[in-house]
Amino acid sequence: MMDIGGRFSSNGVVVTFRSASLVTSAIMLVGFLMSVVCAVVFNFKSTTSTHCGVDNYLPSISAAIAKPPSSYIWRLSITLCASQRLFTIVCHYAMYTSIPLNRRQYHWLINLSTAFELIENLALIGLTCVSSVENHHIHEICFVVFQASSMLFMLVMCMVHNLALNQGTAPTRTEYRSFMRQVSFFVTNIVAFTSALYFFYRHNRYCEPGVYTIFAFLEYVVVLSNIGFHFLVTSNFGDRVIKFGVWEKVQF
For 6, 140, 176, 185, which has the most beta carbons within 10 A of its beta carbon? Predict the structure, then answer.
């Protein structure tokens, strides 16, 4: 591996940020899908029933991850990904601050996005550790904090990335396309969440059959767009690597 001023040699391992982010996102995606499938297969009646007593066909996320075996699968997924996601917060901060952009607004937004990303991940751990069955109030608070901080993180990160792209030189087509995908995931998340709120209200107000199913599906879209957004943010620095092992720099 080449570096300015010499060559690094070691018996260690090099992993690109993109590969690490792909593995983390894949674990969360598979864990989420398996949790929903297991809830439908093993606990369909209890996870799809509501106070209205009407027909529903999909469980909400809180209901899906509340009972075994879904709860075991989801908690295992978050356990495997929690340290990586927290480490990624530090990486995002380091990578964006390394961009030579001397604007107070830019650095202020980086600090803000770091705070929102940290709160989002801590809230995710909280709502995973405390299910809606164990303590509905705490689970609900963690979920609200998670969703609010998640949307704010997406918004601020889009602003940070836009400033970084327009620091002087025109962005390449690949960079612009990646940024637009990032914005698309953010917009999808916002639209899905606000639509889910509408159908949740409609279900509780009118108790129509199938409306809760639409709400649950929109919740899935919120989670999937969140996973996709986090993957894209890290993929923007696909040339960066993580080095494991003892590295020695050999001078020429």
Answer: 185
